Amino acid sequence: MKINIAICDDNKIFCNQLKEFIERYSHDNDTRCKVSSFNSGIELLEQYTDDYKIIILDIEMEGMNGIETALEIRKKNQKVIMWFLTVSEAYVMDGYKAEAFRYLIKPLSYEEFAEQFKESIKWVEEKYVTPIIVEYKNETYHLEEDDILFIEVYGHKLIYHLHNKPITTIDSLKNIETKLSKSSFVRIHRSYLINLKKVKTFNKVEIIMQNNEKVPISKYKEKEFKQAYTQFWGKILG
Q1: What positions belong to coiled-coil segments (predicted)?
Q2: H-helix or E-strand containing 25?
Q3: What's the structural domain count of the chain?
């Protein structure tokens, strides 16, 4: 996956330093990154696209500052990762209003950058997975993980249970498992694979999904499900 990154800072020297950090990290870790630099929040907003997966913003810029820029971007994109960089800790709480992923103080060493950047790359790879392509009634669907509540095996077919309707196709659950995020999807039965993000509630024998459909838990999978559920939500909420 190629990861598009935007750096927005009115200090060109610091912009270039960050770009060098990203290029060094990409080379050392075999990661494909494309970097675009912007000297103001207005310039970034004028050229902004959803292709950017990580945006690194200086907070104290003339005109539109980094927080204001980030809040405008959040209106268009809730998934993009935001970093805030500044020489002062005074803006920390404001940064979190824009759902900051990281808040780092300048000057920044490469070692500190690389440690935080590694976590951002991991997050991007989990959130921006390749869509699942499904053929259904002579139509082709590109499904994102968040579209899927759970997947059911029915004979030699798979049924994708979505928020608005089910889609049936010919495939195997084993094959689909390899294409989905291992942290979000868990097998709870030989015939069911569920999206942990879409669980409403559960008990020992079944899981109730957000659309109120009930999915049975195999007694052999109960422990595995609970471990996966705890790990997933512990990570998100912690």
Answers
A1: none
A2: helix 12-29
A3: 2
Tokens of 114: 């690389």
Q: Which long-range contacts (CB under 8 A, 24 or more apart) does 32-36 make?
A: 32/1, 32/2, 32/3, 33/2, 33/3, 33/4, 33/5, 34/2, 34/3, 34/4, 34/5, 35/5, 35/6, 35/7, 36/4, 36/5, 36/6, 36/7
Please tell me the predicted confidence (pLDDT) of residue 99: 74
The amino acid that residue 3 corresponds to is: I
Ramachandran angles phi, psi of 83, nearest 5°: -110, 140
The pTM for the full model equals 0.57
Q: Which CATH number do you get for residue 168?
A: 2.40.50.1020
- For 186, the token pair is 């868990």
200: tokens are: 């409403």
Q: pLDDT digit string (tens) for 49-106? A: 988 999 999 988 988 999 999 999 988 888 889 999 887 666 655 656 677 778 888 8
Q: Is the dihedral of CA 168, 173, 175, 181 positive or negative?
A: positive
